[in-house]
Amino acid sequence: MADLQPVRGTHDLLPDDMRAHRHVSDTARGTAALHGFDEIATPIFEFTNVFARTLGDTSDVVTKEMYTFEDKGGDMLTLRPENTAGVCRAFISNGLAQHAPVKYFYSGPMFRHERPQKGRLRQFHQIGIELIGAAQPLADVEAIACGHAILTDLGVVDKTVLELNTLGDTDSRAAYREALVEYFQGHLDKLSTESKDRLTRNPMRILDSKDEGDRKIVADAPIFSDYLNTESVDFFAAVKSGLDALGIKYTLNPRLVRGLDYYCHTAFEFTTDALGAQSAVMAGGRYDGLIGMLGGQETPGVGWAAGIERLAMLSGATPTADRPIVIVPMGEAAEAQALALTRTLRNAGLRTEFAFSGNMKKRMKHANKVNAWAAIILGDEELSKGVAQVKTLDDGEQKEVAMANLSAALPLLRAGDRG
RNA sequence: GUGGCUGUAGUUCAGCUGGUUAGAAUGCCGGAUUGUGAUUCCGGAGGUCGUGGGUUCAAGCCCCAUCAGCCACCCCA
Q: In whole angstroms, what is the distance from residue A103 CA to residue A24 CA?
């Protein structure tokens, strides 16, 4: 066992992992593009303020999970724990308000100092979309529809449930919050220690508590829907009817709240029970206050993020690498010829490798080991005749093909093999 | 951050109540005569038993610490 361990909660993506990973991000990128979301990339680190200001100083992410450090110039920087704040910062920095509404897709690493578990890493990867500058409920529907389509394309949508809730607008939320605090204050002695803490930091979180004592108290707590104003109710109704129109199923979950302060109105989460305690696969919502908090002109936005590792685990699909052709030259003259041939075949778009060491047996073995679908054998005899022996490895059949015809003939020989 | 389980060859694991040179499978390397792989046969390399202390005549097995993985909580993707 090597004594050099990777940093806790980080993972190497070896080719098999990488392919599974790419399968998720490539599929998502393609489907997002189909929905009009173009890819952007923002820096992996930002000034700490970008996150501290937007995520709120009560959230767990900010208070204990960020990788924050001072750089050599004395600036406080933070490795991004999520990408929405970065995208909104970019929106402001680049004066993109003039192009609003804009639709962006992103994919990349995020960092959170949490205790690792399966499906929960310190460096993990997310895909996500942001739709900035559209205040209409249809924008929320569009964002959810895009996410739903991606889950469908990945073949995991059946393993998930779309949970939906509204957090209302600022007024509704403030009124409800006040009522909640007042209610729980009256039951302070019976609340769990954790929930007492939540009461000051994020009272709505108490609704989600797993503590039995808490649950009893929660049962009689004020209900959010009683505090929603007409605007909030109408907005939510529009989102729901949009989803209905698209045939996207959802279940209402009044307990679905958000740890991050900037969310309002629509909150949604595609959850699964296939990943243990890590049930959230794709989560998002509306964040109308975020850009204002960052110092930009008040601009509405909606989006979601999804964990690539979790999606990859859910889908279980591990695409295999394209099988190569291996050229097996015997003798110096053949090796020179083989080099030229690799180039010809590669130019023709055929994945080609060169078995350059050992006797013929070794080279054939190599071809087998790299899972080649065909070996091209080139020796003195073949050279003198201007041909090559093409052996298809699955059926063991060998055919003589004129050198000049190789790149045209190979795809036909492979037609029977679609590995 | 809190609590619990686990940690033996590249990989998956075995190793009896502590007792001589720690095993298997698979993988890897080499061989079974000349230009043919994946099957078969033979041979070989590879582990300071996560790491550091301690108890003991003696520790992979016991104790402590530490690191990592996993599970639950917390939180979240």
A: 20
- Give the integer Cα–Cα distance in Å for A214 and A225: 20
Amino acid identity, residue A67?
Y
User: How long is the CA A117 to C1' B60 vector, in angstroms?
Assistant: 27
Question: Shortest CA–C1' contact from A306: which nucleotide?
Answer: B77
Average pLDDT over residues A71-82: 94
Instruction: Give the angle subtended at the CA of A10 by the CAs of A9 and A14, to the nearest 5°.
Output: 140
Closest nucleotide (CA of A211 to C1')?
B73
Q: How confident is the model over A120-163, as pLDDT tens digits?
A: 999 999 999 999 999 999 999 999 999 999 999 999 999 999 99
Whole-number distance in Å between A205 CA and B9 C1': 49
For each of the domains in chain A, give its residue range(s) and CATH number, in order of start: 15-169+229-315 (3.30.930.10), 325-412 (3.40.50.800)
**SS3 (DSSP) at A64:** helix
Is the bond preceding A222 in cis, omega lying within 30 degrees of 0?
A: no
Question: What are the pLDDT digits (tens) for A94-109?
Answer: 999 999 899 999 999 9
